[in-house]
Amino acid sequence: MPLPPDLHVHTEWSWDAAHGSMERSCERALQLGLPGIAFTEHADFVVIHEGQHGLDVAGYLQAVEQCRARFKNLRIFSGVELGEPHWFPDETAAVLAAGKLDRVLGSIHCVHLDGKPVDASQFRDLPPSAFGGAVREFFRETLALVESSQQFEALAHLDYPKRYWLEGQAPYREEDYEEDLRAILVAAAKRGLVLEVNTTRGRTLCPDIKVVRWWHEVGGKAVQYGSDAHQPDKVAEGFLTATQMVESVGFKPARDPLGLWHR
Predict the structure, then answer these.
(1) pLDDT reported for residue 167
(2) Domain ranges of the chain
(3) How far apart are CA 262 and CA 97, in angstroms?
(4) So what's the pLDDT on residue 26?
(5) Which of 38, 150, 192, 240 would bridge with 103, disulfide CB 3.0–4.6 Å?
(6) What pLDDT score does 169 carry?
(7) Which distant-in-sequence residues (6+ apart) come within 8 Å of 150 by Cβ?
(8) Strands 36-44, 75-83: parallel, antiparallel or unpaired by DSSP?
């Protein structure tokens, strides 16, 4: 079965993709036989990490057009990954108004703990007693995003904190957060959002089969795939495993190779 398009890829236009390359990512997508690729660059407004900067939408879109001209056998989607857009409605609106973006992802990376923004990648630095509460706060914030008026089409890496699980904690189990996750999924299904299965560059599925099954149970209509690649050799990593998992739950590929997978 052919692989689906990779709809979550970062390039040199994202602040955290020092090894990214739009052109080489296109070359890699063609090598793999992908029908399409979406460059969903970061639009993050919480400044936590050194070297973080905003997205130059005009420059980015010019690079997309150059790649479209060069790689005519690959469908190239423009896009953005909005981080905590419900915290920054004005800044988000400015990004979305700056040019035509084909794919818009909504994501949570940060939560407020003791009044300060903390990225989920920093949860491992918290006292072990605070770790579980931080994870639950992440899911509460994700629900707030889904229930907000912010405009996005797909919910990215739903259980993002499991990438950064604290050593010594009990292993991550979806059942421990089932109530939180189901509430998010119900709200996302009601909104008509697409659930992203993010392969974390081939390392771990976010979410895994249990949550995708819950998505099917609550009436979620569609799934898409994203590698979250930050360098070209990670494009579509883990897609074979991801597609087999999603199909086993009951979602099927569209007749159009570029289409979403539906129930």
Answers:
(1) 82
(2) 6-262
(3) 29
(4) 98
(5) 38
(6) 84
(7) 82, 85, 86, 89, 92, 106
(8) parallel
Q: Which residues of the chain fall short of a pLDDT of 70?
A: none
Rounded to the nearest 5°, which phi and psi values hold at 75?
A: -80, 120
Q: What is the pLDDT at residue 168?
A: 81
Burial class (CB in 10 A: 0-12, 13-18, 19+), 117: middle
Architecture of domain 6-262: Alpha-Beta Barrel (3.20)
- Which residue has tokens 């690729």? 37
List pLDDT tens digits, range 59-117. 999 999 999 999 999 999 999 999 999 999 999 999 999 999 999 999 999 999 999 99
| Contact predicate 20/34, CB 8 Å | no
Q: Are 220 and 185 in contact (CB under 8 A)?
A: yes
Three-state secondary structure readout of the chain: CCCCCEEEECCCCCCCCCCCCHHHHHHHHHHHCCCEEEEEEEEECCCCCCCCCCCCHHHHHHHHHHHHHHCCCCEEEEEEEEECHHHCHHHHHHHHHCCCCCEEEEECCEEEECCEEEEHHHHHHCCHHHHHHHHHHHHHHHHHHHCCCCCCCEECCCCHHHHHCCCCCCCCCHHHHHHHHHHHHHHHHHHCCEEEEECHHHCCCECCHHHHHHHHHCCCCEEEEECCECCHHHCCCCHHHHHHHHHHHCCECCCCCCCCEEC
Amino acid 25: pLDDT: 99
Supply the pLDDT for residue 166: 84
Contact 54, 75 (CB under 8 A): no
Residue 168: CB partners within 8 Å, gap ≥ 6? Answer: 128
